[in-house]
Every structure is written in structure tokens, then in C-alpha cells.
């Protein structure tokens, strides 16, 4: 390591540029992809855990740190946004619940992402509650076909959620690198 390189910021003892050793990666479930439901569910699980990894070990100020003006994007904003997205697709569209917005229909998820530990705790609690609801809904569905009052196929929602998380985990990569130089994995 040269003097201008950051110190070791990883828990990995195998690869200095990884966050955790591959054997300890919380995204690895060991699930065999034997059917469509298992495959889609596990890919979504991996992206959800990636979001958590990208936010790990940061304080409220770091999580609320904005990318670059005029963007209001932050890691905390991503957590809040994805809680809202989970709620919209699984509770409202699939379950037909009359679930009010957590943060508002517009940019409130981003704008309200302030460097307050209570805001951080609320965001993670909301996100985890929505993920838990979604996982229970997926597990209870008899198949991946049409469900809920809209007749929307669960399959389509799962693929959309994978797409949503993939996009935002790319944003999270850049946001985290800007905060402390952590990249990859």
C-alpha cells in the first residue's frame, strides 16, 4: 500500500478490497435455484442485503450525506425511498392495503433524510417492516401469477423490485465511495 491509499477498511481477511470474506458474506444463502420463486426471491434478498452492507458502520451524518448538488440523494434517502417502494408494490398494489405513504408521494423520502439518529432508526425500522411484509406475502402466495385487486402478477413485481434495488445499489456504491472510499462487493 502506498502512502496515498486508504487504510484497510474491510472486515475481510482474504481480499483487501472486499467488505467481508466471501464465506462470511450475509448475502450468501446457499439456496439452490431450483425454481422461479426461489431464484427471484434469493436475488431480491441479495440486493436487500447489499443495501445494508453499503450503509454498514456509518453514523447519521454520513448516511444523510448528499451526493453532489443539486441531487438530494443520500444513503439514508435510499433506505427511505426503498421502504416506500416496497410498501407501494407489496402492500398497496399486491395486497390491496390502504397503506398511507411513509414519507409522502414525492421527494419527501430524499428531502427528509436528515442527519438525526432518530430519523435513521425510523428509516431502518420502516424498511425492515416493509421487507418483512413483502417476504411474508411472497411466501404465502400460491404461485407467481396474478394476485391482489389489480391482478398484477407477483412475478412482475419481484422482477421490478430486483431492477429497483440493482439501480439503487449502484447509486449506493458511489455514495459510499464518496463517504469513506469503500467500493465494490
From TrEMBL:
It comes from Virgisporangium aliadipatigenens. This is DinB family protein. It holds the Pfam family MST. It comes from the Bacteria. InterPro entries: DinB/YfiT-like, MST-like.
Amino acid at each position: 500500500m502506498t502512502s496515498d491509499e486508504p487504510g484497510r477498511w474491510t472486515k475481510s481477511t482474504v481480499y483487501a478490497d472486499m467488505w467481508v470474506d466471501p464465506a462470511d458474506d450475509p448475502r450468501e444463502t446457499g439456496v439452490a435455484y431450483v425454481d422461479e420463486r426461489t431464484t427471484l426471491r434469493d436475488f431480491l434478498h441479495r440486493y436487500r442485503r447489499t443495501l445494508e452492507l453499503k450503509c454498514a458502520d456509518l453514523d447519521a451524518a454520513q448516511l444523510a450525506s448528499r451526493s453532489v448538488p443539486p441531487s438530494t440523494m443520500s444513503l439514508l434517502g435510499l433506505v427511505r425511498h426503498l421502504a416506500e417502494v416496497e410498501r407501494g408494490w407489496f402492500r398497496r398494489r399486491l395486497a390491496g392495503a390502504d397503506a398511507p405513504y411513509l414519507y409522502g408521494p414525492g421527494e419527501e423520502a430524499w428531502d427528509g433524510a436528515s442527519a438525526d439518529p432518530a430519523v435513521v432508526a425510523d428509516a431502518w425500522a420502516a424498511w425492515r417492516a416493509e421487507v418483512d411484509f413483502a417476504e411474508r406475502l411472497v411466501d404465502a402466495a400460491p404461485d407467481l401469477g396474478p394476485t391482489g385487486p389489480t391482478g398484477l402478477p407477483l412475478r412482475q413485481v419481484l422482477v421490478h423490485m430486483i431492477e429497483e434495488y440493482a439501480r439503487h445499489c449502484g447509486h449506493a456504491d458511489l455514495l459510499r465511495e464518496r463517504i469513506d472510499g469503500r467500493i465494490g462487493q
